[in-house]
Structures are given as structure tokens and as C-alpha cells.
Design goal:
The chain has helices spanning 2-22, 25-32, 47-62, 79-88, 99-111, 150-160, 183-195, 204-214, 249-264, 272-291; strands at 69-73, 91-96, 118-122, 135-141, 161-174, 202-203, 217-223, 295-304. By secondary structure, it is α/β, with parallel strands linked by helices.
Length: 308
């Protein structure tokens, strides 16, 4: 019995060590899954099913089918791309500037037998390696918030989208309730930007103006947060509940202590504890922004490129 416990414990430490020593992103993907974004959640709805529904919403808005050649801007490890391809039958090309994430995306795509439908290109979405008017539809899931210039990224999307076709996305924004004169609001906003390696968060008005400036016609634009029966940030805010243990205060404390021991024993690389604490602060800022209703991770818009 003791031998089995030791073997399982050793295996667990090897897995955790791999996550930290290979790529720190493993922390997020193992805890979150392969669709790394937020979603509206209905009461009693399983979170992974809510994520899929959130992705299906984009496919339905864009009316995707098996004839469509679609671009996923900032595709991460391809979770939404694979789900949308499977749901709609379309072919999806994901663009991502991170080779490690593309490598993971390729492995999962092969494992899910979707290599004929989903492919990936390493590239900068501010200067995409695609021809003009190449795609039937374009979508982005909480990705273009990383763009240093909204007009720049939307211009590239406009360029590669066929005339008369549509672009839909979820964007991170500060809401109308954000007060730049309020020091608490400013601190929370800065915490989100620093914790998630973002340029300055745009307002919803900034996003709409940028879309119009590059030539898009606005079909729909609204914050989906009010549609969520369960607060979107609950996945990050476990409080003292055991239901969402890894995000609970006890879970966070235990993870911190475990990593402290592992780093001391050189089972985790130097800086693992600091990285964990950094991510916890980022989550805390997101929760604060959600609770104060000054931040939304799901400002949805559906826009069209005019016919030439």
C-alpha cells in the first residue's frame, strides 16, 4: 500500500514538474481545458458545456457550414477552432504567434481526427500571411484584446475577409461603469492589464469606433455578461467553497505551499511560486472588475465587410 502511494505521488510530481519546466502555460491549460476563455453560464450548467455553447453561438451568428473557409484570429491551442469545425462542418485556419501553442494544437487536432478540417499558421495577426479576400468568415475569442492597436488588427481582418462576409468576436473591454477618476477602478484595470499582459483595455465605444473606422458595418454589438445567470467570474472566485476547490482560498493556499516545497526541493523551477502568485493576482483583478461591473470579457460584436 505504501509503495503504491509513493509511486502515485512520484508520478504526480513528475507531471507537475513537466508543466512548470516545459511551459508555464501548462498550468492554465490543465486547469482550464483547451478552450481558454470565459462564458455565460446558466444555473446548473456544466462549465465545459457552457464553453462549447459560447463557441457555437459564434458559429450560428456567422451561419457557418461545410462550404466555409474560416479564420480563427489568435487561436490559442485550438479548442474553439476544433469545436466550431466539429459543430458546423466548416474548415478553420487558426493563426497564432506562439509556436508552443501551435504544437499543442496540432497534437490535439490529430487526436480528435480533425486534421482535414482544422489547420494552424504561425503568424502575427497584426500582419497576417494571407491574401486579400481569402476567408468566408472570421472570428476571434478574447484574442484581439492583446493587439497593441485595435484599428490595426481590425484592418487586417477586414483585408483578408471576402466582401459581403462577416466577422464576429468576443472582446475584453472596460464598461460604461468604469470611472477613470476613481483610483480603485484604475487599480483594478491596471491589475487586469498587467496580470494578463495586455495593452491598455479599450472601452466598448473604442471598439465600435475602430470597427467603423476600418469600414465594417455593425450588425450587432452588446455585452453578454447580463445574459449569464451565474457570474462569469465564479470560475476564478472559489471563496471558501469546496465545489471549485482549485480557485478557493484553501486551494490557492495549498497550491502556494506545495509549490514552495517543490521549488525548495528543485522539483519545480525557480520562480514557480512567484509565477503562481502572479497568476492569482491576475485572477483577483478580473474578479474585482467583474464584481464592480467595470470590466467585461465578452463584449460581443457581429460586423460585415461591405460588398465592393
Amino acid at each position: 500500500g505504501c509503495e503504491l502511494v509513493l509511486r502515485l505521488g512520484h508520478r504526480f510530481l513528475r507531471v507537475v514538474h513537466f508543466c512548470f519546466s516545459d511551459k508555464i502555460l501548462c498550468m492554465w491549460f490543465r486547469g482550464w481545458g483547451l478552450s481558454f476563455h470565459f462564458t455565460t453560464v446558466a444555473k446548473g450548467e456544466e462549465y465545459r458545456k457552457a464553453l462549447a455553447r459560447h463557441e457555437h453561438f459564434l458559429a450560428l451568428k456567422l451561419k457557418l457550414d461545410h462550404n466555409d473557409h474560416v479564420l480563427d484570429v489568435g487561436c490559442g491551442v485550438g479548442g474553439p477552432a476544433r469545436e466550431i469545425a466539429r459543430f458546423s462542418g466548416c474548415k478553420v485556419v487558426g493563426i497564432n504567434n506562439n509556436q508552443y501553442q501551435i504544437g499543442r494544437a496540432l497534437k490535439h487536432t490529430e487526436r480528435e481526427n480533425l486534421v482535414d478540417q482544422v489547420s494552424y499558421v504561425k503568424g502575427d495577426f497584426m500582419a497576417m500571411p494571407f491574401k486579400d479576400n481569402e476567408f468566408d468568415s472570421v472570428y476571434a475569442v478574447e484574442a484581439t484584446c492583446h493587439a497593441p492597436d485595435k484599428v490595426g488588427v481590425y484592418s487586417e481582418i477586414f483585408r483578408v475577409l471576402k466582401p459581403g462576409q462577416c466577422f464576429a468576436a468576443y472582446e475584453w473591454c472596460v464598461t460604461d461603469k468604469y470611472n477613470p477618476e476613481d483610483p480603485v477602478h484604475r487599480e483594478v484595470k491596471l491589475g487586469i492589464e498587467r496580470g494578463d499582459a495586455l495593452p491598455e483595455l479599450a472601452t466598448t465605444t473604442d471598439v465600435i469606433e475602430a470597427l467603423k473606422k476600418v469600414g465594417f458595418e455593425i450588425l450587432e454589438a452588446r455585452d453578454l455578461v447580463p445574459d449569464s445567470e451565474v457570474p462569469w467570474y465564479n470560475i476564478l472566485d472559489g471563496g471558501w467553497s469546496l465545489k471549485n476547490f482549485r480557485a478557493s482560498r484553501l486551494g490557492v493556499w495549498m497550491t502556494h505551499k506545495m509549490l514552495t516545497v517543490m521549488e525548495f526541493c528543485r522539483l519545480a523551477p525557480k520562480g514557480a511560486v512567484d509565477t503562481h502568485d502572479f497568476l492569482v493576482k491576475a485572477a483577483s483583478a478580473l474578479c474585482a472588475g467583474g464584481k464592480m461591473e467595470i470590466f467585461t470579457p465578452m463584449f460581443f460584436f457581429h460586423v460585415r465587410k461591405p460588398q465592393e
